[in-house]
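Can anyone check this?
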Amino acid sequence: MVDASDGTGRAPTAEDATSHGVRGLVVLRGVLVLLFGLAVLVTPGPALLVLIYVFAAYALVDGVVAVVLGIRHRGERPGWGWTVAQGVVSVVAGLAAFALPGTAALFFLYVVAFWAIVAGVVTAVSADEVRRHGGPWGWVAGRAVLDVLFGVLLLLWPASGILAMLWLVGTFALAAGVLLLVQAFGSRTHPAVG
């Protein structure tokens, strides 16, 4: 029996099931970062400690999801190792934020800035790997540019205040979440892993 629910009139394949699983994980990442961004924008200053814990939890969950995503699809997707590397960077950033919550807000700014830059560089390498294999790399590359730009802006203007950083974090998270969701649904058959 042919399942035409995808509009192609063909029977689902193992590749379709893999693409569906990848899409679900990329959507999960997008929703998590969107929720994080909204939480930061709605409560910009009452408790920086809460933000540090929220960031740490987000980075840990995002990192674990990225590692699982990369490992789970290592045989089917180019650039899977870079997705794992990005996940490891996120886990390390999350652990650092949990371990040192009482330090100055400037430390938090630098943790976020360097995390964004390193994650962006790793994501750019992933985008290039996907591009070289003919995959849908554009949204992955766009997210890489956004990550690096965000980190550099934080490093250039650290004295502008923690409130400005909170608004930047929230705006960055919303934009990254939207890009992840667009990435997940941008290709009906092969959502990019990165």
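Reply from J.R.: I decoded it. The two ends are 34 Å apart (CA to CA).
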